[in-house]
Design a protein that fits this description.
Largest sheet: 7 strands, mixed
Number of strands: 15
Number of helices: 9
Helix content: 25-40%
Distance between the termini: 46 Å
Structural class: alpha+beta
Bound molecules: biotinyl-5-AMP
Mean pLDDT: 94
Length: about 325
């Protein structure tokens, strides 16, 4: 009902009377008035005038259902199973719980704030209130668990296309699935899997997008390695709702294309947008460190690094830093 009222107010492009709304939706004027009050509490600016009715002045850039669902052009994702929260420990934890309860592919969880946002390998992901997109979704790909690493690339390609479409910024992939702008991290991706030997039960993909933070909002220890879309957009803030919609739409498309068309086109697209290939890199794999030139990706997505002695190493998993005079970038 709230969503319908917002759409009606939006379409009216001026005042619309409580009576018209109540007739259109077949509910009492008091019911309409109650919904309007809830919308105001959610951050919508709505003017009410005794004779004229209601007029929508401003929509909030809040990750709430009414906003996300309005004009969301996915086939399925986020439509029937969308969970929005003001505050959570981690959206991935919630998505895993929902997946264990049997929620379907395309179930989406978003929060305004994460108190214990997770990075890979037990690291943390800083997720302040209202300035980023902290998102997780459930996948149930009909494939062998051994192919699951391919999904990291599918997700990265989906993100690149979504961010290009919605912001026009020059976004790049860093192996395996960071998204960088100006060589700094704008997006982090954490993929968690539940599988048996021959079947994937589910995959939860967690994506953190720094949208409207300013330089000082990042903790000092990784300020020089992090960036928000706003910082890259000459300080102009961006609509998190529009970007989230773009992510869901593009991700659903890229994922479905991958299920039909296979990994090769994904890998091509990843490489076309990569800032890794051709760079001097340092790879950290547990205790081990390796330096060399990133020359290509293997057809399974592994990183091929040519060492100084000319040998080529195939890296299946690890943390890659791009080397630059005087320092390293994460
Ligand atoms: C990642 O880990 O990049 C995966 C981050 C995934 C976050 C999303 S948010 C929604 C979902 N729910 C969750 O709980 N998580 C997912 P990793 O490659 O390990 O990078 C973590 C490192 O990046 C940290 O150790 C910091 O150095 C740095 N970092 C932390 N917060 C950051 C931020 N907001 N922006 C840029 N860098 C950050």
């Amino acid at each position: 009902m709230k969503k319908k009222i917002i759409e009606a107010l939006n379409a009216a492009n001026g005042y619309i009377s409580g009576e018209d709304l109540s007739e259109t939706f077949g509910v009492s004027r008091t019911a309409i008035w109650k919904q309007i009050n809830i919308l105001k509490e959610e951050g919508y600016e709505i003017e009410s005038q005794t004779r004229k009715g209601y007029k929508l002045l401003k929509r909030p850039d809040a990750l709430i259902k009414t906003e996300i669902l309005s004009q969301l052009k996915t086939q399925k994702w986020g439509k029937d199973h969308l969970y929005t929260y003001d505050e959570v420990d981690s959206t991935n934890t919630i998505a895993k719980k929902l997946a264990n309860e049997g929620k379907p592919e395309g179930t989406v969880v978003v929060a305004e704030l994460q108190k214990a946002g997770k990075g890979r390998l037990g690291r943390n992901w800083v997720s302040p209130h209202g300035s980023g997109i902290w998102l997780s979704f459930i996948l149930r790909p009909p494939m062998l668990p051994t192919n699951a690493p391919q999904l990291s690339f599918v997700i990265a390609v989906g993100m690149i296309q979504a961010l290009k479409n919605t912001t026009g910024l020059d976004v790049k992939t860093k192996w395996p699935n960071d998204i960088l702008i100006d060589r700094k991290k704008a997006v982090g991706i954490l993929t968690e899997i539940s599988a048996e030997m021959e079947r994937i039960n589910y995959i939860v993909v967690g994506i953190g997008v720094n949208v409207n933070q300013e330089f000082e909002d990042f903790p000092e220890e990784f300020r020089d390695k992090s960036i928000s879309l706003r910082m890259a957009n000459k300080g102009q803030s961006l609509s998190r709702v529009k970007i989230l919609q773009g992510i869901l739409e593009e991700m659903e498309k890229v994922y479905n294309n991958y299920l039909v068309g296979g990994f090769e086109p994904i890998l091509e697209e990843w490489k076309n947008n990569s800032i890794t290939i051709g760079e001097e890199v340092e790879v950290i794999m547990g205790e081990e460190r390796l330096n060399g030139l990133a020359i290509d990706l293997d057809k399974d997505g592994s990183l091929l690094v040519k060492k100084d002695n000319g040998e080529v190493e195939k890296i299946i998993a690890g943390d890659v830093s791009l080397r630059k005079k005087g320092g390293h970038y994460a």
